[in-house]
């Protein structure tokens, strides 16, 4: 069977490394290829009118792939040349993934089984505006229910009023308090869940008509749950149970065993886990913990968690758990490892690095004929190159002095700022093991912030780009 023949369009500086990629990729995917190098150095600067003017398509080509950053309507090219044009990935090193995934349906991560209760901690100390803002932030990040956290030992007269305010704003609400006046007012105004219920308040909280979270009298006293559950069943009070997750150093492993025991001894009862006792009280990034906790909940059919974002290292915990609950459900439902499914929780380091290599970097440096600086982060070094030279090292200050000395009149203030900003990103990438690509944001998973590249800014301002990647 005849293999399809693809024309890859690129700029002069990317030809060498693109050919290296395609030499390996084409036999694996079973296509033939040709490369057309237009008379531009940087492939990212291509646009549809330029391609229409300069491109000549050889005979026998089935379709044409353009650089992913190419601007303009590709339908114009399709109509002009009479064959399909497609954008590839932004980086040609991603071509293997592009061809490997093409035609496969995306992973469905819309499904989840675990409800997120997001707590507004110490709500009595906040203004109404702050409470509404925090609740909306949690909802936008995946929370299904807003938990109003009260202050132990105090009685808040506005508990009912604030609950009503949240309900009128479209939120589902729970109340976290043992104070009878606070709880009764909250339930009267629309709170659907009460955290929590044990023998200390069982006599009155079971009569409010709202669902309650049953907890043991002491975390270690699991047997007390049986009596509390029996009384809630007799009172026909809806409930879920929480055996209490303990912090590391205070019975963490024993508390995990209690959840396993709870599922065995209460096979048909809903269970909740308060995960903040781990994420807030462990001095470590929380994304990995949230995945493990979500996996534990998914496997034990724990269908709700109470999450918090009080301490700074846990400030994205709600969104992390939202991604985690979808990831683990997909993995378990499909009997698939939670790997190569979704990279949104890989934030500190990147899943893999794509490097040109020493030979390609040297080859590239010898082809450059313009003053624009190209920056790379590879082999534990920064690499900076333009027509005046090729500099590499680990100290950005020394590199700056070196390439500035090669042409001291070339750098104005804005250009120097740009290079400093890019080298800062490159050093961060080297430090953390992340992929650096000039003029592109570093990948921080779901926390990635979009950037307008220096080239795009200059195009928007009607100026010629002065700095650019390969």
From TrEMBL:
Q: Which Pfam families match?
A: DUF6513, Pterin_bind, PterinBD-DUF4346
| Coiled coil segments of this chain | none
Q: Tell me the superkingdom of the source.
A: Bacteria
What InterPro entries does this protein map onto? Dihydropteroate_synth-like_sf, DUF6513, Pterin-binding_dom, PterinBD-DUF4346
- Where do the Pterin-binding domain residues begin and end? 106-362
Q: Which Gene3D superfamilies match?
A: Dihydropteroate synthase-like (3.20.20.20)
Per the UniProt entry, what are the Gene Ontology biological process annotations, in alphabetical order? pteridine-containing compound metabolic process
* Protein name as annotated: Pterin binding enzyme
């Amino acid at each position: 069977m005849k293999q399809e023949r693809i024309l890859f369009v690129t700029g002069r500086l990317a030809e060498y490394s693109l050919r290296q990629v395609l030499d390996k990729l084409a036999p694996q995917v079973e296509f033939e290829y040709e490369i057309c190098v237009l008379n531009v150095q940087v492939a990212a600067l291509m646009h549809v009118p330029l391609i229409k003017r300069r491109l000549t398509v050889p005979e026998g080509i089935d379709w044409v792939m353009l650089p992913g950053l190419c601007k303009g309507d590709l339908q114009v090219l399709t109509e002009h040349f009479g064959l399909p044009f497609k954008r590839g990935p932004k980086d040609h090193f991603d071509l293997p993934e592009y061809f490997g995934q093409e035609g496969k349906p995306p992973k469905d991560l819309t499904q989840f089984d675990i409800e997120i209760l997001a707590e507004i901690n110490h709500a009595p100390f906040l203004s109404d505006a702050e409470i509404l803002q925090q609740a909306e932030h949690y909802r936008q990040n995946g929370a299904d229910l807003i938990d109003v956290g009260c202050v132990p030992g105090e009685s808040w007269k506005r508990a009912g009023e604030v609950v009503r305010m949240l309900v009128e704003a479209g939120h589902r609400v729970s109340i976290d308090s043992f104070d009878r006046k606070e709880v009764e007012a909250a339930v009267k105004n629309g709170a659907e869940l009460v955290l929590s219920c044990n023998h200390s308040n069982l006599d009155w909280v079971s009569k409010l008509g709202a669902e309650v979270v049953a907890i043991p009298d002491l975390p270690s006293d699991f047997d007390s749950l049986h009596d509390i559950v029996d009384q809630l069943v007799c009172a026909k009070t809806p409930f879920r149970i929480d055996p209490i997750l303990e912090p590391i150093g205070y019975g963490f492993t024993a508390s995990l065993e209690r959840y396993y025991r709870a599922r065995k001894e209460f096979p048909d009862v809903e269970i909740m886990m308060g995960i903040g006792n781990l994420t807030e009280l462990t001095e470590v990034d929380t994304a990995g913990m949230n995945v493990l906790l979500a996996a534990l909940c998914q496997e034990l059919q724990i269908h709700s968690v109470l999450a918090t974002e009080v301490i700074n290292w846990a400030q994205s915990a709600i969104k992390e758990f939202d991604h985690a609950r979808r990831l683990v459900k997909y993995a378990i439902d499909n009997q698939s490892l939670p790997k190569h499914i979704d990279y949104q929780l890989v934030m500190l380091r990147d899943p893999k690095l794509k490097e040109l290599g020493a030979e390609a970097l040297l080859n590239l440096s010898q082809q450059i004929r313009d003053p624009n600086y190209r920056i790379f982060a590879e082999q534990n070094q920064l690499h900076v190159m333009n027509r005046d030279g090729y500099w590499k090292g680990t100290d950005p200050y020394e590199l700056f002095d070196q390439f500035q000395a090669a042409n001291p009149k070339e750098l104005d203030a804005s250009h120097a700022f740009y290079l400093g900003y890019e080298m800062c990103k490159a050093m961060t990438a080297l430090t953390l093991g992340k992929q650096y690509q000039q003029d592109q944001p570093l990948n921080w998973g779901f926390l990635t912030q979009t950037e307008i590249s220096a080239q795009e800014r200059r195009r928007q301002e009607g100026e010629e780009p002065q700095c650019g990647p390969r």
